[in-house]
Amino acid sequence: MSVYATILPLIFLGLLGNGCFLDNNDCYGKPLCVENNMERKNEFFFCCCEGNMCNQNFSWVPQPTTKPTEPSVIHELEPMPNAKQQAITLALLIAIPILLTISLFSFWWLYRRRKLGYFNEIPTLEPVPLPQPSPNLGLRPIQLLEIKARGRFGAVWKAQFKNEIVAVKVFPIQDKQSWQTEQEIFKLAHMDHEDILHFIGVEKRGDNLQAEFWLITAYHEKGSLCDYLKANIVTWPEMCRIAESMARGLMHLHEEIPANKADGYKPAVAHRDFKSKNVLLKADMSACIADFGLALIFHPGKPCGDTHGQVGTRRYMAPEVLEGAINFTRDSFLRIDMYACGLVLWELASRCTVQNGPIGEYRLPFEDEVGLHPTLEDMQESVVHKKERPLILETWRKHPGLSSICDTMEECWDHDAEARLSASCVVERVATLGRALVLNSTTLIRVDNTNEIITTKESSM
């Protein structure tokens, strides 16, 4: 490879080539001889190229010596979002907080429903003890003495108010609604009845999360019918007295009473958790009905309201309640109470001394069929599908009065709700039955000292 370099003087308009360089880095890769300088050096132009006779033709292409000004950099602007994108963004900004709020409310509502329980069941057995209530803060000077019973909605205390012994039912803050429902029932007109627990007043104790709600009523030392039957048996006169007063209290609760000069209008009320645990015994062995935390008031011309049909204690639920097939009418709810009334009559009969045979230990309704802690499915299988009812012993049928009670309880717990007896029918039957048989048993005691047992059906009923 040859490298040629030429120094050319400017003679008129001609160009002269001259000379070769053996090696020059400036010549590599240049096939043409081109001068780029604007000015001549010592009257000569200089060019350099690579290749044989590459300097035969010379070109002068002057280039400016100053660096060209760099063009200003134009930054590409980001495209502006269009109207649709802006609308979507705005909608998301609004929708996300709303969805979060709805989700939080839904979780709270589900938690509240779960806490209250789908069936709002009040356990028959003693639950875990509740914490001690807060100290007295004023209002009535009430001193809590001892806990007598515990249930789903709180603890019942024996308490002293001045010189009187009273009962105080203490509701925790989460069960405020039940406290409000109970006092609403007690404050209805005509509710001051001998077979309804006597109401004294209500109070709120404490503030904020430490608040408690007190329901103050009459105190009955014998406690509930359920607890009494666990430890005691009853004679025929006692059984009739308990059954009649219990049914009369239920009849008064169910009754719609018009207003008079002394009291206002009393609507019909369904208890919805009738059971032996919610029947209290007075000192004279008459009964009164208590615990109206689930009760339902039927105002004329108004719907039942936002209520759930499946409430109460599973063991005492009527077939239509277990099936979830309730007609939301007044009569339907009253018949549900009557089904439970039949079960309580069975509890009484099972512990009555007039049965012709040994008296067994106290057992809850359906305890033999489903045990002590039945599930909803257990009760559905037994009551709805198998149509089982508590066993009536043949020894009960040998006593004319007890046999009539058995007929009454069977008509109360009939599978067909419309075939069940009303509370007023039960009152009439038991009242008539009790009067006739007590007179007859007195005659027998005077004649042969056989205590109170009636051995024949010769008595008039």
UniProtKB/TrEMBL annotation:
Annotated signal peptide? 1-21
Stated EC number for the protein is 2.7.11.30
* Compartment annotation: Membrane
- InterPro entries xrefs: Kinase-like_dom_sf, Prot_kinase_dom, Ser/Thr_kinase_AS, Snake_toxin-like_sf, TGFB_receptor
Where the protein is mainly located, per its record? Answer: membrane
* Class in the EC hierarchy, top level: transferase
Instruction: Give the UniProt family note.
Output: Belongs to the protein kinase superfamily. TKL Ser/Thr protein kinase family. TGFB receptor subfamily.
Task: Identify this protein by name.
Answer: Serine/threonine-protein kinase receptor
Q: What is the lineage of its organism?
A: Eukaryota, Metazoa, Ecdysozoa, Arthropoda, Hexapoda
